[in-house]
Amino acid sequence: MLQIRDIIWRLLFIGCAAAIQVEITPTQGEISVGESKFFLCEVVGDAKDIDWYAPSGEKILPNRPDIFVSRSDETTSTLTIYHANVDSAGIYKCVAKNGDKEAQATVQVKIFQKITFESAPSPQEFSEGDDAEIVCDVISSPPPTLIWKHKGSKIQFAKDVRFKILDNGHLQIRSIKKTDEGMYNCEARVMARGEIDFRMIKVVVNVLPTIRARQSEVNATADVGSSALLACDADGFPEPTVTWAHNNVVLETGDKYSLNEDGSELVIKDVAKVDEGEYTCIAKNKAGEKAEEVSLNVFVQPKITYLNNQTAAEFDEQVTLTCEASGDPTPTISWSFENRVFAEGQQSLDRNIVVRSHARVSSLTLKNVQFTYAGQYLCTAGNSIGQDDQHMYLEVRYSPKIQGPVATYTWEGNAANISCEVEAHPGASVLWFRDGLQLPSANMTNTKIYNTPTASHLEVTPDSQYEFGSYNCTATNAMGTESKEFLLIQADVPSSPEIQGVEPFSSTAVVVFGEPDSMGGVPIIRYRVEWRLPGQQWTGREYDADDATSRITIAGLKPETTYEVKMSAINGKGESESCPASTFKTEPVRYSFTISSAIPPTLAATTLARIGEPSAPKLEVKVQKGGNSLKVNWIKQDDGGSPIMYYLVRYKARHASHWKPEIRIPNASEYVVLSGLDWNTEYEVHVVAVNQQGKSEPGTVSFRTATEPTTVPDAVDGGSGLGTGAIVGILIVVFFLLLVGVDVTCYFLNKCGLLMCIAVNFCGKAGPGAKSKDIEEGKAAFTKDESKEPIVEVRTEEEPVPNQEGGGPTEPNETTPLTEPDGKTVKDDSTKGETEVKNATAEVKTVPSEAPQANGNESKA
């Protein structure tokens, strides 16, 4: 290409001889703003100077920073425009000179603006519901045409009027939604140049938080070390931060408060009443913040703040007990005494007891004060949170009240105790009188007095009819005096019991009887049952009596035999006459067949045996004192012709699936005591009789234990209300009597002591070698061995226990005679068999020595 051009130039040079020609390459130029470009000026012919002129006509000097002119050789010069701007546009001229010869050429330089995005930030964030304006600032020359796209498609402004292109080219979205979020394409086009460019803009729509309290009200209890949990759940975009405030103070994790990781849960520790109030849960993000109130209600358990003991005198017009309590909600206050409960507005039928309450105070008014009002009163304050109980004591001072059985039965030679039970406050002194004379007296040396804090016991051992009759007990204290007459009556032997029927079996029989019409004034101790073959000697046995005794089993009988039976009753005075004899016949023995293995099969023989399994025993249940112990008695039925070896007892709660361990009882026993049972529970008991042939069918019985007793406020012990001074005085008297007793013992046994010194030095008498008459007279109030130590009875189920078929006498009471009857009694020792009981328990009863004691030969107050 250059060779052709050179040839052309040479031809022109030859043709024009000395002419100069100038050419600029490129002939025109378009430069984008900021770009650089150069132009080459070529001269044909001799040229001494080659210069460039700006559009303004000024010669372009070599030292300009934006436009640079350089001459490469004698025929070329270069114009370079650096970083063109709009001012750089125009017609540039290249002039070649050689003397007076000159030639020039021009080139038009056009400056244009390329598509330039001055501002199109990404991402751009807006709040939901706002009128959003998506910024996309773009320039070019000529100005560009903008096209907006969303999700790859051109936005159809006609279809969604919420979208609009503003005059500045920005995209407006009215009431922007979360669904409008995403990538937007801002595209610029210059049609003249076919130029196109775009920017991707991420649009984020922030959502104002929504907040919801899990509970608008939270209840808590104060002063119990508990915590309260307040919680709220917040939603929004971006994820909001949650804070809590109380009384305009922002709460932070510390000793009192604890927040979980996202702040949605606030734990208030050791809640107190001052923590009650409104708590604000605040959720905040870029879109704004929302708040929700949570109420904390702090309740306080009731607490009795005032309750004092009171003192009154019997027959006072009234006494008022006051109980104050705090708590939230305001507690209700009630009163209870023994088993009675008094609530607000309640009163007794006689209108002597009235309860009134106001706010947090309750008063219990007792009118016409009685001595029975004395004791512990329970004030109970309760609300929906809990309750508080406190006791107070009402002391009532009253004159003596004498109680106790008026009549006491005994007989000549048998000591009896007349008990004068005294209730008084303060404590009363007690005196005994007979025919106006204070006892003991010279005329009645066979009397003794024993005093306890709550009673006085007069022991009388009648020697003649004179000692029977009326005795006066007089009690006195600071509040007054009261007297009461007691009668000592001659006892008699009981009348005969009545045999109502006999239930015979093969070797035993059950005698059903009714108790005597007359007890003789003292309880029945035993029953004597006698039986015989008609015309032969009577065989008898005595059986202990108790309140439930109405059936007695006699054993050792022969099958299919006729017997006669009669009965008599025994009390302390003696034995009644026997009732008319009743006749019965025992049943035959059931037969069973056994094949003797010793006989060859060819000579097999059948041996008839008069033996078999026993019949099931009949069971009776008696609840013991306490309510959760039970005595199960059984009546032996047909023994099957073979003696009963033992009994098997098992029991279980009705709802339980397993039986308690089986108990094995010897054949001589007729009952078992089940203790430690569950309260208010139904039990099943099975008793099986076992002989050499096998076991009987079980005798069964069901029962329910008593309901567990609740604690009742303790009343004053015996109502005596002894003060500290009285107790100290009693201890001094007891100590003095102990010293006197020791000295008397030394006097009679070892001939030493204070009495011995007095007898020798003043009376000239030596100590006796035997007990005095006074001591002998006192032995009726104690056991036969004259011991005054506490009487201890230890009984286990492994030892023989008195039952229907024999045993020792029952424990005496106020009317129990204290001597054996004169008649001889045939005792059956078969009840002394050893009792086998698993997990045997022992019962120990101790009778203090201060009170008069009784055994089989004595009576007891």
TrEMBL record:
Transmembrane segments: 726-749
UniProt feature, compositional bias: Low complexity: 810-820
PROSITE patterns, sorted: FN3, IG_LIKE
Biological processes, Gene Ontology terms: cell adhesion
Residue ranges, compositional bias (Polar residues): 852-861
Top-level division of the source organism's lineage: Eukaryota
Domain Ig-like: 20-110, 113-197, 209-297, 302-395, 400-487
Basic and acidic residues bias (residue ranges): 781-798, 821-837
Residue numbers spanned by region Disordered: 781-861
GO cellular component: neuron projection; plasma membrane
Annotated keywords: Cell adhesion, Cell membrane, Disulfide bond, Glycoprotein, Immunoglobulin domain, Membrane, Repeat, Signal, Transmembrane, Transmembrane helix
Membrane topology note: Single-pass membrane protein
Record's subcellular location: Cell membrane
Occurrences of domain Fibronectin type-III (ranges): 493-589, 613-710
Signal peptide: 1-19
Pfam (any one): I-set
Listed name of the protein: Neural cell adhesion molecule 1a
